[in-house]
Amino acid sequence: MTVANCASTVHVVARRPLEQTMSRYLIDRISNAANVAVWTGHEIEALHGEGRLEAVTIRAADGDQRFPASAVFAMIGARPRTDWMGGLVGLDDRGFVVTGEDARRHRDFARHWRGADRTPLLLESTRRDVFAVGDVRTGSTKRVAAAVGDGALVARSIHDSIRLASEAGR
To answer: Can you tell me the mean pLDDT for 134-163?
Structure first.
């Protein structure tokens, strides 16, 4: 179920054209939804209400517009903040951490990985025992529930890594 299925009107406020930030299938779904209005080149300027949200003001170069609203979902960016990692783990061309098979195929894998007794576990990076979960990971779905699931999976993977290291005598 999507927000558009539950609301009479959905306003998508985007600073840049959707084609620059979104997958084609999502753009097509938005375009085909009769109750979705897209405000390209706009930003949320203000939220209004007493005790609850009642309206939103959006701003663009050609002026402000205010419309009624009862909820806001903010997606403030999809750029990973991985610059600080400084070569610790392999990153894709957009800065997301590569894991699992993507890590094994990454150009830094041979330099980072120690030992040949196993390949990276599902959410393990190009460095043994360094895992990535949630939005920072290549291929993640960028949803909170998925990140929570990643965390649960990594907890199991850490136990597997410890067991495998013990079996290998490390």
So the answer is: 84
From residue 18, alpha-carbon distances to 69, 112, 133 in Å are 22, 37, 26
Q: What CATH class is the domain 83-168? A: alpha beta
Residue 162, helix vs strand vs coil: helix
CATH level 2 (architecture), domain 3-68: 3-Layer(bba) Sandwich (3.50)
Residue 167 DSSP one-character state: H
Q: Are the CB atoms for 140 and 134 separated by under 8 Å?
A: yes
Fold match between domain 3-68 and domain 83-168: yes
Dihedral angle sign, alpha carbons of residues 40, 55, 52, 9: negative
Structure tokens given for 157: 């993977």
For the full predicted model, state whether its pTM sits above 0.70. Answer: no
pLDDT value at position 76? 65
